[in-house]
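Sample entry (294 residues):
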Amino acid sequence: MPLVSMKEILRDARRDGYAIAAFNPVNYVSMKAMVRAAEELDAPVIIQTSVKTVVYWGHQTLANWMQELAGPSPVPVALHLDHCKDLSMIRKCIEYGWTSVMIDASSFRFEENLRLSKEVLEMATPVGVGVEAELGEIAGVEEEIKLADEDATLVKPDTAVEFCLQLGNQLAAFAPAIGTAHGVYKGQPEVAFDRLEEMYNRIDIPFALHGGTGLSEEIIQRCIKLGCSKVNISTQLKHVFVNGFLNYRTQHPKDYEPLKYIDAQYKALYSVFAGKIQQFGGGGKSRTTAEPGA
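Predicted structure, serialized as tokens:
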């Protein structure tokens, strides 16, 4: 089916108590593995490109890959732009067929974050493109920008409620900073479940859980039960992508057939994607009646 907005599939996930896996691709092979794993498990999936990935491959190339993969697919596939601060980049992705975008203005003051988020909603909503916005600052490394743990800012529930209300509750996903972090954890994070639960009871918008790599099963499942309907996985995929190649090289040091290395990467990635989809409860949750741009 044509690419869909993540807004409708995330609403389904929030309502029914599961989460949709959101994976950051590196190239065509990783995108293909994401879609094929979702098809095998009859699950919706969100393929979210980082800004640097878009810059590297180009808008048209990524859009063509996704249209080729999602067009004949029976499961809902959303093409999402992850963590973007540049409105011109967001506008161009919308023009090239991205069905969801994230405006990350979390480093700005509340009023400026709100203004920029409203501007993105105004350009995206009329064309059926979903919008994710973030409040509070999540620690770790994202788009080559590092935020130390001590500089991270947890979101306050009252402020989160006001933010979402000011945006007319039109967000496809709301990403609150609750103590998780991008990158590799040195230990298990202290997730502010009390704040998450209060927001869950007061905000009827699916939450996006950033920093999903390395979280314990207990933390992930508890977050899903408290409205985290989108779980982001990026860092783990980078490791699997590189190690898939290196492991094949170690096992077959005299093999110089490139396609075998690529296939090894594909299989390693596919296994992770399938496992995460099942872990988050997305298996069997395909909404085959989802409309493009819903």
